[in-house]
Amino acid sequence: MTKRYHLLILLLLAALLLAACPASSTPATPAASTEGATAAPATEVVSATTASAATKDLWADITARGVLRISTDPAYPPQSELVEGAQKPAGSKCTGDEHVAAEFKGFDIDAAVEIAKRLGVEPCFVTPDWTLITGGKWSGRWDISVGSMSITPERMKALYFSQPYYTTPAAFFVYKDNQSFTKIEELSGKKIGVCSGCTYESYLNGSLEIPGETIKVVVTDADVHGYDTDTSALQDLALGDGVRLDAVLTALPTGQGFIKSGKPLKQLGDPVYFEYLSAAFDRASSLDSASFRSKVNEAIQAMHSDGTLKKLSEQYYGTDLASAAATFDFANLKQ
Amino acid sequence: MSVIVKQSKFDQEQSRLIGKQLVAKEQQSLKLHIFKVAVVWAVLFAFLGLLLYLLQIDLPYIVEHRNFVLAGLWTTLSVSLISILAATILAFLGALGRLSTNAIAQGISGFYISLLRGTPLLVQIYIIYSGLPQIGTQISSLGYPTLGKLLILSPIQSGILALSLNYGAYMTEIFRSGIQAISQGQGEAARALGMTHWQTMRLVILPQAFRIVIPPIGNQFIAMQKDSALVSLMGVWEITYRANRFARKDSKFMEMFLLAAAVYWVLTLISEWLQGRLENYMAQNNKR
What we know:
In chain A, 40% of the residues lie in helices and 21% in strands. Chain A has 335 residues and is of the alpha/beta class.
């Protein structure tokens, strides 16, 4: 008898809890409503996406709003870095959450602006953390990433890639005064810094695959130290030989740029592999991105064939890193 | 009889004099104490200065680029202010729920506090920024696109929501302790006068409880100004984001981070000063 009574109470309680579920969301409402009142530009973004839901096609959506929303992480000079004192032009359609091209500079920024120009829309930039970009599931917050992203099978699960717009060699860097390392093979078992989630980390773990390329792993059993970005790893290496790190595996231009800024590092050996760097699109997008992706591919191909990308590469890297990407067999990517 | 009066009059004079001397002595030792503390601060500042000197900070660089970082001040402040306001409202509701005799209200607030205090703020930010939209997409595909889109929050909105929910949970306990600090006798007296439960709360308990909880709320606000740096993760250009990303241009990490640290410290000093004034004001009201 009492058992049944307890069961009844339990059932009632469960029912009440379920009924109270809408009520449990009420604590969130004061916060949400204050935001709505104060962050007016932010709500515009939401309403813009709401309006677009009817179109179902991403390219139609982009042309309708006249704005291409590009994600970039301005933590990687010379690809993308911040510019001081930039003003938003008067006629800009970028919302309060977005930034205009003038607020950045770099190879990626110039390439993105050129893509937007050829598509006939205004480029607007958002700056989420790199891990939020590579993970996909952008929820329609931005349309495309033009962020020197390497094509990897892992990323292809979450993202679509464009025809690569340039390539980057990956190279090891060690402390300037170091004499003990003469060959890359000698770095096996040493403390090596990389950016977390980058291809450099996969390379050291032996799990890197690059479509269209055979990877030769020469460094084994490395003590891999993950960092938020390459520059943090290089910063730690610059503290001294073996103080925190013995070496850093990073993009050749990134390491060279660091050395150019006066940091006591040097390159070790030749590049270990090449990455193809592409623009990326969200696979989980609720809008159909197929026509948008082919538009972007056309634009990138045109930028290859008229030498725009080669010129940009020479301007920012002092060498032609673009031409090798023009011949990349896009059809073979199978995405 | 008259002799006694005379004597006591003399005593009064005497004791007043002694009292004055004692007060003067006390004030002097207080002044000396303040002076000593100031000297300790000065020494510590000098030591900090020495450390900065050893760091070989490029001061002209900081001065030249200060405006870029300072431009994030407004974002940091508004995110913190909106969040602390929302958190205060949440905490107030949470505390009422926790002290309520209603099982549902108690259950909800208990669950809310446990969940939000039991998980890291950073994880909460990730879940609200990246997780909520996924729920939204599911809801949209079920045929409620307007409701689904509501769950796709902008970076600033996500940050404010996460900070409010997280701090609201911690502050619920502040409110609860504030309410419970009012002696039970007062509630009983109010009820004896015929007040309802809500009247007792509104007219007797809460006005006194608010006075108690204001200093810890100020403390939470000071903490929140620094935790608001976590919204930089989603690309909100507040102080930390600007300092961090700008530093990468010229590899001037220490310069930019020290600038950011100084800005936060000044913000905290101003908040502490305001909090002190508020506390004094509250204490005045409490004088009999």
